[in-house]
Amino acid sequence: MQLKQLANISAALAAASCALLGQQAQAGTVLDDWQFNSAILLYNETDRVSAGEAILTARGDFGDDKFLNLGLVVDALTGASATGAVAQPYVQSFTRPSGRGSYDVAPGVIPLDDTFHDTRVQLDASWEQSLAPNWRVSGGGHLSKEYDYLSMGLNGSLARDFNQKNTTVSLGLGYSHDTISPEGGIAAPFAPMLLRPDFADDNSYQAAFDTTRDRADDTKDTLDVLFGLTQVINRDWLMQFNYSLSMADGYMTDPFKLVSVVNANGEVQQNLYENRPDQRTKHSLYWQNKLHVRGSYLDASYRYMWDDWELTSHTADVKWRLPMGDSWYVEPQFRYYQQSAAEFYQPFMLQAEPLPQYVSADYRIGKMNTYTVGAKFGTKLAQGNELSFRIALYQQTPENDGITAPGVLAEVELYEKVTAVMAQLSYSF
Questions:
Q1: Which residues 6+ apart lie within 8 Å of 360 measured at CB?
Q2: pLDDT tens digits along 130-180
Q3: How many domains does the chain have?
Q4: Do residues 149 and 143 lie in contact, with contact meaning Cβ atoms separated by under 8 Å?
Q5: What range does the domain containing 39 cover?
Q6: Which residues form the signal peptide (predicted)?
Q7: CATH code (residue 194)
Q8: Within a 13 Å sphere around the CA of 350, how many CA atoms are in the beta-carbon half?
Q9: What CA–CA distance (Å, rounded) separates 335 from 346?
């Protein structure tokens, strides 16, 4: 995404604010009532996915404690994505999820679909204002569209200040409706991945492929509830507690993921499309502390999540902003994440065992731990503007959850580490 495009968006937001205010003011006058934040993010995994993202948010002050918030996100992803199938000591062939085209994977290499690519555009808008003394309310919505996924949602919150505004209690609600329309349709649960060479001609292959499709698309609905408590401890210490509940119902299977069925020697007999439950309830507790320490600012948080898929996670995140002279600062960051495996996660299935009701070999819901180490460098510019640059290293380590690999699977990598580098350039004005 080019900075010129961001500049055009900023001009469009300024023009929109003129219309909303009903004023015939110059653009510079309108911009005095707006705060803009822009960022460009680059993300690159070693030999896997790469992503680029442009973000622009705007906050307009309409007076009387009324604010309009607007957001635009454009991102593009490309590269190789893990299919869920296991590596083998020989060349493997795979059909792409759409049913069109195939690719080969070298011996000992975890199967990756190297044609993964997508572009997403997301729009957000919300309005917030005082409802009464010590009461604030907000409401908004979002729209996100990518090639095979559409998400629409509404959200709102209510907050009440107590104790001379040193204590705030809040309630937030959000609802989203998603439509999933993968190219080639949605595979039936445990449908086999077919290979074109196994059929006499294209017509017979296509006829067999069509029988593995269950429907063209499906939907998912998610309701989120958040209860929050923010407390000013003293002039140098702010603390926040949140409890959130998320209830999802609908299609939650990844239409592109496979599970390998292996014999007693660990050799793949076939690859089946995964199947996940169509309901999920998640709970999380979040605790954050922001402290002013001798001219520096410490931000430390912890999050615990659990759900009815028996997946639990712990997240600890620490940032420490340290001044460097009058206008520069550096902010080191360390983030650690650890999760257990979902109850239906299996890196492979044994041919001799019956099919389970649900199964997924997606390492993202398997046992793992990750860490992120990085630093942000920023400076204050004229008129309160800010420019910053962030660089970080991300390491993801999937782990064996006590599963014994039979035969040849003991000789190949089943839990490959993922390393990524992230860089972000931000400008606030």
A1: 84, 253, 254, 257, 259, 274, 275, 276, 342, 344, 345, 346
A2: 999 999 999 999 999 999 999 999 999 999 999 999 999 999 999 999 999
A3: 1
A4: no
A5: 3-428
A6: 1-27
A7: 2.40.160
A8: 9
A9: 27
